[in-house]
Amino acid sequence: MLYKIEYSLNWGPVYSLQMRILMTLTETAIGTSSASSSSSALPLRVDMLAKRFGQTVALDGVSLEVRAGECIGLLGPNGAGKSTLIRSIVGRVVPDSGTVEVFGLPAGSMGARMALGWIPQEIALYPRITVRENLSAFGRYFALPRTKLKESVAWCLNWAALEDRSGEIAKNLSGGMKRRLNMAAGLIQRPRIVLMDEPTVGVDPQSRNRIFEMIESLRAEGTAIVYTTHYMEEAERLCDRIAIIDHGQVIARGTKESLVRDVFGQRSQVLARFSGAAAGIAAWTEAHGGRLVDSTAEFTIEQSSQIGPLLDSAANTGLVLEDVSIRRPNLESVFLHLTGRELRD
Ligand code: ADP
Fold it and tell me: Among 77, 244, 254, 320, which residue's Cβ finds the most Cβ atoms within 10 Å?
C-alpha cells in the first residue's frame, strides 16, 4: 500500500507520511479501551514542558492553554522551539519533563490522538492513488467504522472543495489542491483540536485565500486550532490569541490588542526615511533611541509633540527627510520589540 512519494526529491514528505501513519497505527494498536475525554476539559493544556537536545535547550518550561473553539497563533523566530513544542504535543518528541493533556487525557492515549489532528507542513500523501482513496486510507488507520469513514471522507472532500476531483490521482493535482488534500487528510478522524504547521508555505495567493476560508469554516464549527505561521498578517487575521515563543519560553501571550497595549501602552511609532549616507542615518537613529528596519528609522513616542523636535534634530545633523508617518504599533512591532528580530528573519 505504501507508494514512493514523488512530489519532492527531499525525504521530508516520506518522513511525514510515515509519521502520520505511525501516529495512527500506534493508536489502532492501543485499541479503543482507553478513557474517553472529558467534555469540560480544555482542548489542550501544556504544562511546564521542557526538552533539551544535548546542550541545546529547545523548550524551557512552556505552558499553554487552548480553549474550546479558539484559534491560537504560535509565533517565534527560527530556533525558538515551535516545532519541538508541536512535535511534543503530537508525540513525535518525548519531553524531558512537563505534561501535555488533550481534553484532559494524556498525550499519546487513544482518546487524545482521536481528538487531536495534525497537519504537517510537508505534503504527506500517497501520490499514485486517488483523492478519495487517500482519504479512505488515512481513515482506515484510525479504524473508523465503515459508515463513519464514508461520512468523514464526504465531509473532507466538501471542506477542501475537492468533490469534483475525488477520482483524480493525487500526484496529478495542482500544488494548491495537494495542500488542501494534505489538510483534509489530517482531519479524517474529525478531531476537535487541530495543530497546523505553516499550512500556507509556498502557496499562491488564490490557494492561500481558499485555505483561509477552510480554516475559518473549521473555526465556525467550534474546532480549536493551534496555528504556526511565519506570516504576521495570517496570525492577525485568523487567531483569537497569540503566544510569542523565544528561547524555548512563551514570552508573551494575549489578543493582538492586549499585546500591543501591554508592550506599548498609549505610545505611537514614528517611521522616517532619509536620503544620504547610511552610516550617518544609522548613527543618528541609534543616538535618538530608534532602530533602523529596512532603511526606515523607527521611534516610539509618548506624544505627537515629540515628532517636531525629532525631525529638527535630523535636519540639523544634515539628514534629508524623504518620508515620515505615524502609526499605532501592531503585532509586528510587538514581536520586534520582544524578540529583537523580525518574524521572517
Ligand atoms: P523552531 O521550530 O521555532 O524554529 P525548533 O523547535 O526546531 O525551533 O528548535 C529549537 C532548538 O532546538 C534549536 O536550537 C534547534 O537547533 C534545536 N533542535 C531541534 N530539534 C533538534 C534535534 N532533533 N536535535 C538537536 N537539536 C535540535
Answer: 244
Tell me if 237 sits within 8 A of 212, measured CB to CB: yes
Give the Cα separation of 73 and 95 in Å (integer).
21
Q: Are residues 153 and 117 in the same domain?
A: yes
The predicted-structure confidence for 256-310, as pLDDT tens digits, reads as follows: 999 999 988 888 889 999 988 888 899 999 999 998 888 899 998 988 889 999 9
**Ligand 1, atom 11: closest residue by C-alpha:** 58
**What number is the average pLDDT over the span 182-209?**
92
- Residue 132 near residue 162 (C-beta atoms within 8 A): no
The verdict on the CB of residue 49 being under 6 Å from ligand 1 is no
What is the C-alpha separation between 158 and 333, in angstroms, rounded? 38
53 ligand 1 Cβ < 6 A: yes
Cα separations (Å) of 148 from 152, 188, 190?
6, 10, 10
For the domain that residue 175 is a member of, what is the CATH number?
Answer: 3.40.50.300
Structural domains of the chain, count? 2
Domain boundary among 259, 286, 304: 259
What CATH number is attached to the domain comprising 323? 3.30.70
- Is 167 in the same domain as 272? no
CA 50 to chain centre: 20
Question: Strand order of the sheet with strand 97-102?
Answer: 56-66, 44-53, 97-102, 105-106
From atom 5 of ligand 1, which residue's Cα is the shortest distance away?
81
Question: Do 224 and 194 meet the contact criterion of CB atoms below 8 Å apart?
Answer: yes
The response to whether residue 93 sits with its C-beta less than 6 Å from ligand 1 reads: no
Reported as a single tens digit per residue, the pLDDT across 5-50 is 333 333 445 556 655 655 544 443 333 333 445 556 899 999 999 9
Q: Are residues 306 and 251 in the same domain?
A: no
